[in-house]
Design brief:
It contains one helix and eight strands. The protein is low in regular secondary structure and 224 residues long. Among the domains are: 47 residues, no CATH class; 53 residues, no CATH class; 52 residues, no CATH class. It is flat.
Length: 224
């Protein structure tokens, strides 16, 4: 068996001539080095400066994401006399806001349900306009070549398959204003000026809802 001599089979870390073997190591808290422990690593070497103490901080580092109550406000805002109290607070995070004054009304999630808009498709309208084909053919007799029996109204005749118009854009009728509008239920959108509404049949002369006297607003909230 061939045995190398003169350490020709060894190289140093840079590929040069081998001189000696050093078993290095590191001990946390070590302040001095030698041939065995080659690295000095004090406890403070891994410390990260934190000058903010223990107070809350807006932070998004992948582990946590703190959100403000109001985007333009101050995080962890607290001032005497500006506490967050339902139906009383006029500020949030130091910014004027009425979101807490009426708890039944919010920007996206409302606790009082109301009719948003119509749903489905205007099939009755399309049927009334003659857009439904009983035989899945055009007026000229050609096949629609689709599983849809509804036809498109075109200037040259109904010759292509289509689907009825969506009803998502049809808003409910607001009897008070006499017009169609989304989120128009005044009883479901309370404010401090009109915190609620009572509907009671009391006017038997004026039958028009918009001008009749059957709608009664609750008294405004002016104090705490």
């Amino acid at each position: 068996m061939t045995v190398p001599t003169g350490n020709n089979d060894k190289k140093n870390t840079s590929g040069g001539t081998f001189t000696a073997t050093t078993e290095g190591g590191t001990i946390l808290g070590n302040q001095s080095t030698g041939t065995v422990i080659t690295k000095a690593l004090a406890l403070k070497d891994n410390a990260t400066a934190w000058n903010d103490g223990t107070k809350p901080k807006v932070l998004a580092d992948g582990l946590q994401g703190n959100q403000k109550a109001v985007s333009a406000g101050t995080f962890a805002y607290e001032v005497a006399g500006k506490y967050v109290i339902a139906a009383s607070s006029t500020t949030l995070s130091g910014v004027s806001s009425t979101k807490m004054l009426i708890t039944g009304q919010g920007s996206s999630q409302r606790s009082i349900a109301q009719f948003e808009h119509m749903f489905g498709a205007q099939t009755v309208t399309a049927f009334r306009q003659g857009q439904f084909s009983w035989t899945n053919t055009t007026r000229a007799g050609a096949s629609l070549a689709a599983r849809i029996n509804w036809m498109n109204v075109a200037s040259g005749g109904m010759d292509t398959a289509t689907i009825p118009t969506s009803m998502a854009g049809v808003n409910p009728w607001n009897p008070v204003s006499g017009a169609a509008a989304r989120h128009s239920d005044s009883a479901a959108n309370p404010t401090r000026a009109i915190p609620g509404e009572l509907v009671m049949k009391a006017d038997f002369v004026t039958l028009t809802v918009a001008s009749g006297g059957d709608f009664f607003d609750y008294k405004p909230i002016t104090g705490m």
